[in-house]
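Customer ticket, subject: "Can you confirm the structure for S24 family peptidase?"

Message body: Hello, I'm evaluating your service for our small team and ran a test protein. I'd like someone to confirm that this is what the system normally returns, since I don't have a reference to compare against.
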Amino acid sequence: MTNREEQIEREKRAARLAAARIHSKIGGIRKVSKHFGWNENKYKSHESGRNGFGIADAKRYAKAFKVNLKWLQFGIGQPDDADAEPVSIVDVPRISWVSAGQLTDQDGVSDFSEFPTEPAIDLPEGDWICLEVQGNSMNKISPPESLIFVNLRDKRLVSNACYVVCDETGAATYKRYRPSENPSFQPASYEDVPPPRFQGAVTVVGRVRRSLINM
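Agent reply: Thanks for trying us out. I re-ran your input and got the following:
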């Protein structure tokens, strides 16, 4: 997602937050901040769109203003929709392809706290990272600029499943596992894309369990 797209999403989320506050009829920014014990400047920055807010704050605001969390955070459905079941939303670290390759090193990336995050709904249990797809080698499944969510705990190879893998140089790539082909990690593209040329042994970073297209 580009900086401009991120800004647009932040502004849309801020507008929904303002609408939720107004709908609650509790009062203005100062009054609701005092009523719920929030930091007024922080809340004001979220409602104005100057600063974005993540899942933890979204849950707090949705509960306070009695609006649907998916609507507030993602613009899905209507503010008064009731969730059929509890929704699990997590902030997944969004890392670079270079960092993905480093995950297999003994001294590689271990602290994700400094990375930006992407919210994800109802991911199964696991250790998750998010990557933005580059190029067209997997466009049957994930067009360029799609986001993929990778479970670092899931390294078991399953035919036709998709994985992020890296070779001994630390170069990471996203491919489909085809055990009968050489190499066994192959593109899934509508175009004539050659398979990757790995240097040395190939290590599985994790299995891709979700691909998301930002419209």
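A couple of notes from the result: The CA atoms of residues 13 and 73 lie 6 Å apart. DSSP finds six helices and eight strands in the chain. Feel free to reply with more questions.
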